[in-house]
Amino acid sequence: MSVWSTEGAKDDICPIAGRKLPIDVAHGHTPGVLDPALVAHVVATTSLTPGEAARVVEDVIAFHSQPVEVYVRERHARLQTYGARNAEIFTRIAEELRERVVAAPELSERQLRRIVYG
User: Fold this and answer.
1) pLDDT band at 93 (very low <50, low <70, confident <90, very high)
2) Are the C-beta atoms of 64 and 97 separated by less than 8 Å?
3) Which of 30, 19, 24, 29 is nearest to 6 (CA)?
4) What is the three-class DSSP state of 118?
């Protein structure tokens, strides 16, 4: 399953020309509904235009709205691609989950393995 799974999602235009991103409405990411104060803060503290700032905020919200199971599977596959072993991978993922902005539940190595292998 990809990070950008199309299950329960609708397509929306990506800021990168020629690409489309499914926006997952089921996980709290609703296009066009952004906190104007947050967008204004990003504009005030960067050199981004309001439109660019809004796209950045939407992208960050989408990233952190990702279900924990999807994050674990994708992260496991990515780390495995670079030669990491499962013991190292599961320890690292457990640490990363504790640091996520949107807190994920505390998962044991066994629970992480079940997410990856079923």
Assistant:
1) very high
2) no
3) 24
4) coil
Q: Minimal CA–CA distance to 23: which of 82, 81, 66?
A: 66
Number of helices (H) and strands (E), helices first, in the chain? 5, 2
Alpha helix (H) ranges present in 31-85? 36-45, 50-64, 68-81
The residues pairing with 21 across neighbouring beta strands, listed in sequence order, are: 12
DSSP 105: P
* pLDDT surpasses 80 at 96: yes
Residue 41 has pLDDT above 50, yes or no: yes
Strand duo 10-13 + 20-23: pairing: antiparallel
Helix (H/G/I), strand (E/B), else coil: 111:
helix
The pLDDT-based confidence of 117 (bands split at 50, 70, 90) is very high
Q: Looking at residue 104, what DSSP letter applies? A: P
Contact between 65 and 102 under an 8 Å Cβ cutoff? The reply is yes
Considering only the C-alpha atoms of the chain, give the largest distance between any 2 of them, rounded to a whole number of Å.
46
Beta carbons within 8 Å of 64's beta carbon, 6+ residues apart: 100, 101, 102
